[in-house]
Amino acid sequence: MMRQCNRDAWDKTYRAQVSSEYWEDECQEFSFMDLPRRTRFIRHAVATLILLPLALITAMSLCDQLARASGSLNILFSIPVWYALMGAAVWVVLGSSRLFTSSLLYLYVLGHELTHALAVICSRGSIHAFKADLDGGYIQTDKNNIFISLSPYFLPLWAMLWGLVWGVTYLFWPTVTCQAILYSGLGFWWCFHLFWTAWIIPKDQPDLADNGTFFSLILVYFANLLLFLALLRLFNAVSLHRFLADCIHNAEKLWDVLRDLAMLAAGLFL
Asked: Which residues contact 2 (CB under 8 A, 6 or more apart)?
């Protein structure tokens, strides 16, 4: 969550709200409506006219790619896809068992705030306070931008760390077993990221509201689609050349649909 503090006008606070209670301090809450009207209009326009069509085209093209991949047994039963599905199955079992809910929730909140912190560091900012527990978390920083606010919603930190640790391990243990561990872990942590992100977004997250909820949701959705595409490419489940061709084809289809709807609306109201 981002708030502007009375004691330091440049301090910003980003937080994950897990419970219905807000973390309180001597800060005055900042909202999207505090932005200039022109900035709000530009963000809504970008979300509606650019990000939303791109997200729809990307989603349609990914569906086309997955439909082709599902018909190929070589891809479906390949080592990357098979072990990723096994990792996802492990997450489904753990998530549905509720035996480790508190531990997994804490792990998500910790990862959420660490992602904020890493985004601040990448943006050359400073971190003044950090907190993560089962009731939520926050960081206080002197830097503020959209990347810092929304990064936890599309960057799967634990999956990225898993890949980093695996990369170092693979240098000393380049075996098929090591590859299986990588893909299983990616499947598990990706499902972990998607589940908790979908779970926490409806809980009135200030990170989303501060940048405009509609704009933030479209941007998060589009970014997750692109990361999912990268993951599928890592698994050799999609072809970038065919994906781009599908994007062009689906863009033409979407344009035709919008044109027909516009003509229909014009015929009804004119």
From this structure: 12, 13, 14, 30, 144, 149, 206, 207, 210
